[in-house]
Amino acid sequence: xxxxxxxxxxxxxxxxxxxxxxxxxxxxxxxxxxxxxxxxxxxxxxxxxxxxxxxxxxxxxxxxxxxxxxxxxxxxxxxxxxxxxxxxxxxxxxxxxxxxxxxxxxxxxxxxxxxxxxxxxxxxxxxxxxxxxxxxxxxxxxxxxxxxxxxxxxxxxxxxxxxxxxxxxxxxxxxxxxxxxxxxxxxxxxxxxxxxxxxxxxxxxxxxxxxxxxxxxxxxxxxxxxxxxxxxxxxxxxxxxxxxxxxxxxxxxxxxxxxxxxxxxxxxxxxxxxxxxxxxxxxxxxxxxxxxxxxxxxxxxxxxxxxxxxxxxxxxxxxxxxxxxxxxxxxxxxxxxxxxxxxxxxxxxxxxxxxxxx
Length: 358
Ligand SMILES: Cc1ncc(COP(=O)(O)O)c(C=O)c1O
Hints:
The protein has 358 residues and is α/β, with parallel strands linked by helices. It has helices at residues 12-15, 42-53, 66-76, 88-100, 116-123, 142-149, 172-181, 203-206, 234-243, 251-262, 264-286, 308-317, 342-357, and strands spanning 29-30, 83-86, 106-111, 127-132, 154-160, 185-189, 210-215, 228-231, 291-293, 300-305, 320-321, 323-324, 334-338. Pyridoxal-5'-phosphate (PLP) binds next to helix 4.
């Protein structure tokens, strides 16, 4: 076989990255990916399939996705020219970075946070500057961020609120102050927005440099179908559309998103239930001795414990899969647990009570 020196083909920036790994485990209760535990309601599933069946699968979807873009714009409360729909918000992070980051540019990001931002930026040859969140509260390190964005090479500041994997939201006043001070793009990932009372959308009316990223994967239970959207200034949206893979939102995803937007009342009821279950779980966790639970504005909670790796295995032995986040800076003692159904949370609590005395 002809052999290749792969270092001559693959960019060194890509070779240097370890990539996103998700270990495989057997489980009965899945609390590791912040998915919606209720799934898509049966009646909506039927409607999605009925509408999908009536469409012509041999034809490409609408290139501009005009209908869905207009519907999302209405839901988000912005004009349609401020919306870009994509194949999950991950693909829009990629498209946005492709548009804005060149080799040698700098991106500032907090840590710990969603790891994809730094990974994509590095692949494009951009430098990543990291500012650590405040100890214990995971609040924004405002002074550090202000110093970091003062560097003229900084093109982009990426924040995630509510933040994954810590669960807390950042102060809107602080985000606003950063947007005002910074001449680059302030990208705010709001994947978990629907579980929080905070909405950064009004910032779009005051700051042309603010970009919001949102998704149907969490609140609307469509993680498997891949629908996300970006809200930004019309000029930037036009550019991001150039970088979006054509037709990457397929007919099924488009149909499902449309049906969800027709039944917001049903879905919002479920979102409220997830928030109620989160608060119920947090109240129970607060009483535990070996576990410290952090407040959350998302559909998951972060816990700190004395032996996180052992607790991870202890839960898995009972069929409960959570996320081991001990590899993140500041979270060496932590696990992240998605909010499940009432029954799932009860089984989780029962197992954690056993852990207390194990
Ligand atoms: C902060 C954050 N942004 C984006 C995503 C990806 O969302 P999507 O499914 O829309 O690609 C996730 C998924 O876990 C996330 O936690």
